[in-house]
Amino acid sequence: MKLYTYFRSSAAYRVRIALGLKGLDYEAVPVHLVRDGGEHRRPEYLDLNPAGLVPTLEDAGQVLTQSLAIIEYLDETHPQARLLPEGALDRARVRELAHMIACDIHPVNNLRVLQYLGHVLGATEAQRNAWYRHWVGLGLATVESRLARDARTGPFCHGDRPGLADCCLVPQVFNARRFDCDLSAMPTVCDIVARCEELEAFRRAAPMVQPDAE
Amino acid sequence: MKLYTYFRSSAAYRVRIALGLKGLDYEAVPVHLVRDGGEHRRPEYLDLNPAGLVPTLEDAGQVLTQSLAIIEYLDETHPQARLLPEGALDRARVRELAHMIACDIHPVNNLRVLQYLGHVLGATEAQRNAWYRHWVGLGLATVESRLARDARTGPFCHGDRPGLADCCLVPQVFNARRFDCDLSAMPTVCDIVARCEELEAFRRAAPMVQPDAE
């Protein structure tokens, strides 16, 4: 398997964690999102991934994009260390938590959105940072609320094993810290993230230990 | 089943289509996102859905949020009229198309984001419309590219039956038209949407025929 990745991409980080939790080896192909106007905008990359986003996974000659679709695919094709639970209601809960992050927080704070705010709308750095913190604060408060009052929350987002929701939560919290977001009202989120960060699969997926880290 | 919905919410529209394709009856509970400062901000609604977003589904005493998690749940619990195909690669493809819309287009153009642009950043109506069209144009061009060059595209996004990707595509195109986005470079997208709109399940889910339509 070949993963097109950027060390700081939160979506690529999710997939790196999932691959690690399943113990799957892969070749990392770095795609630099900033240097030279962005390697993700080159024709050969757009041919693989017309959205020009990371990650992209190549597996057995097939090209897959969209981090959550990739993780569900890995879970269906490599049943070890299941990332989604068994029952339909529990699966819905885990997907709900994942989508709260992958739909409601991350896309609004993506690099290209911040660039549009600056370049097209003339937002200052302070305004862009406030924007970032606004959506993270709103989104993670929702995740905290869902986690804190559901008995299915365990040491991890769902029960006693890390899964799809944890794959999304850890990169989002990494980003939140990078932008100095206040996480003091989110003890459940912070506890779960601390527990994840002790695990080898999460440690090896972290941005700063990637081969392309700066 | 009870669906908390707003006629113009693209995420609620997706779930209404899915319920219709499966022939499932439900009670629609309208949640007005604009009137009186937004009914989705009332404590009783936030108690159900702490994100304050629509849709929310109540089924057998359980509360589910996040449109794609709800649709996957409906597909797992009501196997008639499958919305996801059988094989893992095909499922990944359908989820990829769905997430291209549900993650990369819709959240960036959500009502609350447009409100922030106006109220906090002082963006004019023209700037907000340009923002909207920018992300729709970029996102739907990617969807078009994926659809146009894959033999698995049929009369619908995947093969000869409507599914999860179509549930996402039709509401997104409805919104795009509402904001006068140029779809002339997206013939595959427009063909599929036209075909969907002939079907009862899509017609009955459309915003303008909802009980709360204005």
Automatic annotation (TrEMBL), chains A, B:
Report domain GST C-terminal positions.
Answer: 87-214
GO molecular function annotations of the record: glutathione transferase activity; maleylacetoacetate isomerase activity
Q: Name one GO cellular component term.
A: cytoplasm
| PROSITE patterns, per database record | GST_CTER, GST_NTER
Which SUPFAM superfamilies does its entry note? GST C-terminal domain-like, Thioredoxin-like
Tell me the ranges covered by the GST N-terminal domain, including all copies.
1-82
> Per the UniProt entry, what is one GO biological process?
glutathione metabolic process
Question: Does Isomerase appear among the keywords?
Answer: yes
NCBIfam families assigned? maiA
Mind telling me what this protein is named?
Maleylacetoacetate isomerase
Q: What is the lineage of its organism?
A: Bacteria, Pseudomonadati, Pseudomonadota, Betaproteobacteria, Rhodocyclales
